[in-house]
Amino acid sequence: MTSPRILDPRAVPVSGADEHLPPVAASALTAQALAERFQRLQRTGDWQPELTGDGRTGAARPPKPAAVLVPLVQGGDGLRVLLTRRTDHLRDHAGQISFPGGRTEASDAGPDATALREAEEEVGLPPSRVQLIGRMPTYTTITGYVVTPVVGLVESAFDLSELVLDRGEVAEAFAVPLPFLMNPAHHRRHVFEFEGGQRQFLSMPWQGPGADGLHREYFIWGATAAMLRNLYRLLAA
User: Fold this and answer.
1) Residues 119, 137, 49, CA angle at the centre, nearest 5°?
2) φ/ψ of residue 197, rounded to 5
3) Pairing between strand 145-154 and 64-73?
4) What is the structure's pLDDT at 22?
5) Which SS3 state, helix, strand or coil, does residue 8 take?
6) Domain count, the chain
7) How far apart are CA 140 and CA 94, in angstroms?
8) For the whole model, what pTM was predicted?
9) DSSP state of 30
10) Within the chain, which residues score under 70 in pLDDT?
11) 3-state DSSP helix/strand/coil percent for the chain, to nearest 5?
12) Which of 21, 91, 99, 221 is deepest in the core (most CB within 10 A)?
């Protein structure tokens, strides 16, 4: 059985939030602390993700390898996570909040190469401005992508105004403070009921300025929220 796609996640009831869990300490959210945590993970493999997929139990299409870049933008006010809002006409993930990324091409040397290539193609982020610090375990989406999240530090001299978006895929790019996303009080749980079962997912709605400087709500949910939740679990461990 394959779970149906959720067309309007905002309409799915919230079953609760995770304010009982502690936020990641500020000392663990610096560029140096994150780099050291991923170095330890690479040496010891001392962590397993909480969420591994969208609950997809069957599919007409075979799994497809993909990678996303989790870009952590350095600045005087701390780290921020660079995210995109997809255009509304895409076949998969239209209008959703996503990391820059996409399907692996045959010419890619591996997930790191895919993530950097896609980030440059989608938002104009040059690979030379990104220091990769590690990978998280794969996450399988309901659309059949097996996604490797690749975490990178964007150099502090880089300004978001330098981004050049691929308007065919990306409607806008914006940055969310990492402490907001690493506080589980902002992690809301939803339960989607359908004939024959149910599907659960997380959302992390954030209100803040977009690329135009105007404040609005960005509804972060699904695979993007799940990968951020896994990052929370890694840093809180």
Assistant:
1) 125
2) 170, -165
3) parallel
4) 97
5) coil
6) 1
7) 18
8) 0.92
9) S
10) 1-4, 55-61, 88-95, 196
11) 25, 30, 40
12) 99
Coil, strand or helix at 33: helix
What is the SS3 assignment for 3? coil
Is the residue at 1 inside a domain?
no
Give the residue numbers spanning the domain of 161.
Answer: 15-54+65-236
CATH number at residue 184: 3.90.79.10
Compute how many other C-beta atoms are within 10 angstroms of the C-beta atom of residue 44: 8
For the beta carbon of residue 39, count every other beta carbon within 10 angstroms. 12
The 3-state secondary structure of 64-127 reads EEEEEEEEEECCCCCCEEEEEEECCCCCCCCCCEECCEEECCCCCCCHHHHHHHHHHHHHCCCH
54: three-class secondary structure by DSSP: coil
Considering the domain boundaries, does residue 80 fall inside one?
yes
134 CB contacts (<8 Å, ≥6 apart)?
35, 38, 39, 41, 42, 150, 151
Residue type, 142: I
Q: Is residue 5 part of a domain?
A: no
**Residue 217 resides in a domain:** yes
pLDDT tens figures, 44-77: 988 999 999 986 545 566 889 999 999 999 988 8
Contact status, residue 65 vs residue 74, Cβ threshold 8 Å? no
